[in-house]
Design a protein that fits this description.
single chain, 474 residues, alpha/beta, 15 helices, flat, binds guanosine-5'-diphosphate, protein biosynthesis, translation initiation factor activity, GTP-binding
Amino acid sequence: DLANRMSERAVDVIRMLMRQGQMMKINDVIDADTAQLIAEELGHTVKRVAEADVEEGLFDTPDDPEALQPRPPVVTIMGHVDHGKTSLLDAIRHTHVVAGEAGGITQHIGAYQVTAPSGGRVTFIDTPGHAAFTAMRARGAKVTDVVVLVVAADDGVMPQTIEAINHAKAAKVPLIVAINKIDKPDAKPERVRTELLQHSIVVESMGGDTLEVEVSAKQKLNLDKLLEAVALQAEVLDLKSNPARPAEGTVIEGKLDRGRGPVATVLVQRGTLKVGDIVVAGAEWGRVRALVADTGVQVDTAGPSLPVEVLGFNGTPEAGDRLAVVENEARAREVADYRSRQRRDKAAAKITGRGSLAEMMKELKAGAGRKEFTLLVKADVQGSLEAIVGSLDKLGTDEVMARVVHSGVGGISESDVTLAAASGAAIIGFNVRAHKEAREAAERSGIEIRYYNIIYDLVDDVKQAMSGLLPPTV
Ligand code: GDP
């Protein structure tokens, strides 16, 4: 490959490597420094293109603190299936559409903004559940400021409720509990509060600091209160962003529209996005032809926390891709080209994810900052699960500890794999297997799944892996 790009013969490159004491075959991989040395010795000029160079200054450039303005919070709704996530999103949208815009006609663009009774605005991500949430996190995008955890008062805390709690914890995003379906005769909101205690969520009415609101999505009860709770939480978080700068954001949804071409719903996070801006997102770029708000109205600009459809991309970016405005087309092309090359290489490269015990051990040994073994544990019965998690918790030493990011009863699902990928965790199955989709997803993302049927073996393996990297005690 290197010979090819320099229009040299491969044998010459290999001979040169040999002279430096490196015995290489034609398809072996050499490091960047060696490549540069060889290229220069053959009389070529080298321009090193590293990620840091190409993406330099695209994201997260510092802002003058004076320029920071409060921005609306971004909320994701999570909870167990059928507990009312969709109903709640719909109810809030219909009762609180931003007044004065388009007479309340809304379209689904993946996110929407409403006005809370006190006047503050709140942005909701319109795809309930944690699949979207973790998929984005796995790609390094941080979008959600607050998670609203929906728990049905007639059903209580269920497996996906616990999953959602763990997702939020892993992402360090604060929770607000919405106890839903309180209109039902068999509603037991008190039971929900006590059950949450077992998962270290202490709601305010029980002396804790997690805000809770009793709601009914069906009867549209207390939605105002819920929005106020979100606004209150946002105040605590002191969310700020500079609107007066080129925009940065994250793609929430990407689709190819028959009439309009590639359409990306983007949540603007900093700066203001304008029609005419040149943008890159993932491996795609384009000039913004139009911006469409969730109300269906075309707008000329979109500021922080506002979701908008962006038209004008030359391809469809993916959910989780970060968007940035760049100074000209050449720059946009450079970044997009670089990224599509990178994605190709990544897909071609053999997957060595962080989610394997051996890989964690290597990182620890290399002193790469890993001080914990992240694990996700699934087991067939609650009793075994508790015993396993309990034993793993005890394994920690001063130097390294095992951290269980999620544990649950049941087979290993695709959503387990997504969470593991987002947290760089290995998955452990005790007397359970992985679903087919989960196995495939694990293979794709390089997550290791280990199966056990004896607790001792399981704990011993983790212990071995953990102590293997510790320096010998003198
Ligand atoms: P999701 O799976 O969490 O998105 O749940 P859905 O929003 O689809 O709701 C599941 C079921 O619960 C539907 O039949 C809803 O009509 C019903 N439901 C949702 N919220 C309420 C509520 O506040 N009260 C009552 N009685 N039913 C509700």
